[in-house]
Specification:
The complex is a heterodimer of chains A (501) and B (115). Chain A is 41% helix and 12% strand. In chain A, α2 (22-40) runs antiparallel to α3, α7 packs antiparallel against α8 and α10 crosses α13 (375-398). Chain A is of the alpha/beta class and 501 residues long. Chain B is mainly α and 115 residues long. Chain B is flat, with a radius of gyration of 22 Å. In chain B, α2 (22-31) packs across α3 (38-55). Chain B has four helices and two strands, in the order ααααββ. Helices cover 32% and strands 3% of the residues of chain B. The chains are: A alpha/beta (501), B mainly alpha (115). Chains A and B meet through α10, α11, α12, α13 and α15 of A and α1, α2 and α3 of B.
Chain lengths: 501, 115
């Protein structure tokens, strides 16, 4: 009997009690990857020998009587934006193809310390720029619910791996919604912690004031366990918060909303939203009310300016961060024939090594930061960022958490928005405000849209360092809906082994 | 060297909120150190124009004396203790280099540019 459908918490209990070894569990997941990943294409890199060696090392640590963390022996899929000493790290870019970093990201190191077994590196939109994983230089990942649909992005390899039972857990990074949107469209739980709550050390930078590592999982408790395993202060990240991690696991176990004040964001709904998304969202709000929460409508008038502000701020930071890819110290070098200058080689390498979305954003950021345009674009966007933070502050005077749909539509067909950047950017409409304000937000499954039978996500947002609150609400919704459905939402997904045939 | 960033504003007739000219796109590509093909420049001129028109909506907000936010949470300078710690060995530091020689990164010529 394979262990692939068990939750991370269940797998950890099996290992702790000695009923299963980490090596057996790793083997089950490697077999699943071999069976379905040819069609899902979630992973860029899997090295079976390395995985089994990691698992045996965890079993040996346990046999030696070492005290291990609550997720010891559990396999995990790792987004290929985190550096890993023993695996390539590419950001799904030609410019880093085959690169072996000489150091581990803090998140990677903490996974290892906690005894998690890293199955491999997952696909993403190049440098985490995108909402569909189509911007990867190494192929598109497919949504396990319907292989013709996108798995979300940029953490689309991670979401697909967990939804396809190739891994019970995955890491992601969220700059404008890159954990929550993929989780929403694949029927998973995805959490963006408070900015600075999880370390950016060894996360290849996209937009440094926004990038936030976080967990993807099939249950709220599993997400909380992973959140706790890799979060917390890191002296190697100057923006890391030197405070205790909020009690997220305790909140996920508590799972009640009695007396909690919940605000529905008025600006997120109506035109541009799929009817099936709104229907499931409104049902979830009614459910929260029936569970004892006090629900009110809240207006956040500047949230409609979050998307344009983000598409100035994030590309501006990206144009600066990606200047490090200069063909001199690591990565691709093109055209070094002995006659060309360093600058010519740099420009040729960057033109060949970056994909079209990355080039678009570098150029857009360079434009927004140019003198003459700076005040009108980047400067204005930074003022909008202030106004959005003030909208949140005003809302949190009235309510404890805010809710909205995670994304305006369910998973769209692969190819549909690939050459229409503005249409693609709309996928992040509801998730961006939390990145701009740095606060905590989660997406939990709230049902299937009637039109297409695809998953819909409920977003729950809370103030900075109130991460535990979104877990509490998410777990309450999960519990009530699973009672209604008779099991997890993912149990309603089509059988992948049939689809693969 | 003249301020090449300032040149952007005068490279074309594009004004804030308006579409971007192909000349401006070519200039941005040079600033961004991207040796783009002609067809890429044509395609990007249209796409960047659409995106810039859309993001120009931030100018609708009456922001007057609103302070800008560069970072969501307050930042303070962080120092670490001045202690010797292990770092990368030369071999590790050079392990990803496209070319190296005598424990150094080997790069194309850097002089005689822009002659």
């Amino acid at each position: 009997m394979t262990s692939i459908k068990k939750t991370a918490a269940e797998l950890a209990a099996l290992v702790a009690s000695g009923e299963a070894s980490a090596a057996e569990i790793a083997r089950d997941h490697l077999d699943r990857i071999a069976a379905v990943d040819g069609s899902v294409k979630a992973f860029l890199h899997v090295d079976e020998d390395n995985v089994l060696a990691q698992a045996r090392a965890v079993d040996a640590r346990r046999a030696a009587g070492e005290e291990l963390g609550p997720l010891a022996g559990v396999p995990i899929a790792h987004k290929d934006v985190f550096t890993t000493k023993d695996m390539p790290t590419t950001c799904s870019s030609e410019i880093l193809k085959g690169w072996r970093p000489p150091y581990d990201a803090t998140v990677t190191a903490r996974l290892r310390e906690a005894g998690l077994v890293i199955l491999g590196k997952t696909n993403l939109d190049e440098f985490a720029m995108g909402s569909s994983t189509e911007n990867s230089a190494f192929g598109t990942t497919h949504n396990p619910w319907d292989l013709s649909k996108i798995p979300g992005g940029s953490s689309g390899g991670s979401s697909a791996a967990v939804a396809a039972y190739e891994a019970p857990l995955a890491t992601g990074t969220d700059t404008g919604g890159s954990i929550r949107q993929p989780a929403a469209v694949t029927g998973l739980v995805g959490m963006k912690p408070t900015y600075g709550g999880s370390s950016r050390y060894g996360v290849i930078a996209f937009a440094s004031s926004l990038d936030t590592p976080g967990p993807l999982a099939r249950t709220v408790l599993d997400a909380a366990l992973l959140h706790e395993a890799f979060s917390g202060h890191d002296p190697r990240d100057s923006t890391s918060i030197d405070r205790p991690v909020p009690p997220v696991v305790e909140a996920a176990r508590r799972a009640d909303v009695e007396g909690l004040r919940i605000g529905v964001v008025k600006e997120f709904g109506g035109e541009g939203y799929q009817p099936g998304v709104l229907a499931r969202f409104h049902e979830a709000v009614e459910l929260l009310e029936s569970l004892g929460a006090k629900v009110v409508e809240v207006s956040c008038p500047h949230f409609t300016y979050a998307l344009p502000a983000y598409y100035l701020i994030a590309p501006s930071e990206c144009s600066s961060n990606l200047a490090r890819f200069d063909a001199m110290r690591y990565g691709l070098r093109v055209g070094d024939d002995g006659t060309r200058s360093a600058e010519e080689v740099m420009a040729l390498t960057r033109a060949e090594g970056f994909g079209s979305e990355v080039k678009r954003r570098i150029m857009l950021g360079t434009y927004a930061l140019s003198s003459g345009y700076y005040d009108a674009y980047y400067g204005k966007a930074q003022q909008v960022r202030t106004l959005i933070a003030r909208d949140f502050d005003a809302a949190y005077e009235q309510v404890d958490v805010l809710v909205s749909p995670t994304t305006p539509t369910t998973a769209f067909p692969i190819g549909e928005r690939a050459d229409d950047p503005m249409a693609m950017y709309l996928a992040d409409l509801c998730t961006i405000p939390s990145n701009l304000a740095g606060n905590a937000a989660i997406s939990v499954p709230c049902g299937l849209a009637d039109e297409d039978g695809l998953p819909v996500g409920l977003q729950v947002m809370a103030p900075v360092l109130a991460d535990d609150r979104v877990y509490r609400v998410g777990a309450a919704v999960e519990k009530a809906l699973q009672d209604r459905w008779g099991g997890p939402l993912l149990a309603q997904a089509p059988d992948l082994t049939e689809a693969v045939k | 060297m003249p301020d090449e960033h300032a040149a952007t504003a005068s490279a074309g007739q594009g004004a804030p909120g308006g579409a971007i000219t192909r000349d401006e796109v070519a200039h941005l590509a040079r600033l961004s150190r991207l040796a783009l093909r002609e067809d890429e420049l044509d395609h990007l001129a249209t796409q960047l124009g659409d995106i810039i028109s859309a993001v120009a909506r931030v100018q609708e907000v009456a922001a007057g004396d609103i302070p800008p936010t560069s970072h969501a949470l307050p930042l303070t300078n962080v120092f670490r203790a001045d202690e010797v710690r292990p770092g990368l060995t030369p071999e590790q530091a050079l392990s990803g280099a496209p070319a190296s020689e005598q424990q150094r990164f080997k790069v194309p010529r850097i002089l005689d540019e822009e002659v």
